[in-house]
Each structure stands twice: as C-alpha cells, then as structure tokens.
Specification:
The radius of gyration is 24 Å and the shape is globular. The protein is about 65% helix and about 5% strand. With about 240 residues, the protein is α+β, with helices and mostly antiparallel strands. Strands 1-2-3-4 form a 4-stranded antiparallel sheet, with no helix packed on it. It starts with a strand and ends with a helix. Strand 1 and strand 2 form a beta hairpin. Helix 1 runs antiparallel to helix 2. The protein has 2 domains: about 30 residues, no CATH class; about 200 residues, Phosphate transport system protein phou homolog 2, domain 2 (Methane Monooxygenase Hydroxylase, Chain G, domain 1, Up-down Bundle), CATH 1.20.58. It is built from 6 helices and 4 strands, in the order ββββαααααα. About 30% of the residues are buried.
Amino acid sequence: MRSVGGELLVVCAEEDIRTTRDASAAGGLRALYTPADVRLRLTLTPRNRAFFDLFTRASTNAVEIARLLVELLDRFPEDGGELIRRIKDREHEGDRLTHDVVDLLNRTFVTPFDRDDMYRLATALDDVCDHVDEAADNIALYGVKVVPPEARAQASVILRSAIKLDEAIGRLDGFRDSRQQLIDLRELEDEGDRLVRDAVAGLFRSGQDPVSIIRWKDIHEQLEAAVDACENAADVLEAILVKNR
C-alpha cells in the first residue's frame, strides 16, 4: 500500500487487484484495472437478481417434477418409460441449478442474505427432485404393475407442497410475508405423515407377498421424503424471514 499522486494505492500481488481512492474526490472508491492486471475478480455487492432468479427457477422445476410424478402414477404403466425419462431430465436440471447457486456463492463476496441459508435452501429444493426421481426409478426397477391409491394421494401432497413452496420462494425477493404459505406447507407435511403411516400399515394388513410389501414400503417412504424436503425448505425460508425483517 503506498501513496501515488495524491491517491491511496493498494496492490495485492497474487490477484493483482488494484483499488484506488482519490483524496480530492467526494469520498468515492474506484477500481482501476486492465485485463492484464486482474487475475481474480470478486463480486463486492449483492447480486440479488441472480440469486433470486436461480431460486425461482429451482422451485419452478420442483413443481414441474411433481406434476410429472402425479401424471406418472395416474397413468402407469401407460407412457411410464417416457414420463420417467422426463422426471430424470427435471432431476438433472435441479442438479444444474444447485451447482449454479453454489458456484455463484463461491464467487460472491456479499450475498443478499446468510450464505449458509442460501446453501441449505438450494439443497432442500434439490432434495425434492432427488426423492421424486428415486421413487419414479424404483417404480420401474421393482416391476410395479399397479399403483395403489395411497401412492397417488402422496403424489398429490408433493405437488401441492411444491406449489406452496414455489409461491413462498416467489416472495423471497424483498423478504415479503410468506407466513401463510409456510403454514400450508406444514399442514401438508402432516397430511403426508398420515398418508405414509396408513399406507405402510395397510401393506402389512393386505396379505400381499413379502417382496411386494418391501417394494411399496420403500416407494411410500421415498414419496414421504419428498414432502419432508419441502418442509425443510419451509424451515429455511422461515429462518431467512426472521433474520431479514
């Protein structure tokens, strides 16, 4: 750090980033650099729009994968292979969006809100897609012939939860009140808990062969995990709103 021509010059050798302050100016900072000067660039101001856009795209993707799951269970085995492929595409899109959030976090010095909360929210949204994709894969891998009504009811809860989560994410920019959406999400999680308990209890009362019971118990629990991921996202959103009121 040294004074040059009435300016304060700070030189970082490895990154070769130079920041100057003109002592005669109105107190503003300006960065002077050329492409040859800069090895590393850090974002020093919140890139609100980029982060909020990524979260909105991720929640919209969660709604879409949930819609595909409802369609799969309603129509199975008709068009099962095509719908499972489309669900897989949505799961890959969720992975890409999560990677984009993490990459942007790593390149941003000041974030719009707590960076740990941002990471947790991105992970919870991705978990919704992962659990839906795993349940859809297992339906194909386990050789399922008939989908029970309890699984269709669970898929409906996942879709309604994803829609409420998408609404809440849409209110994140500006930290607008989303308490009603979060309340609805918790009520849906309770409904999901009741459904999975009743579904598993019904399996053991059904007299089906043990292999079928194990198959459907696993699928029911994967579907419930998708609902739980929506509630996890709701918990993160609530923490974000409390910290930024």
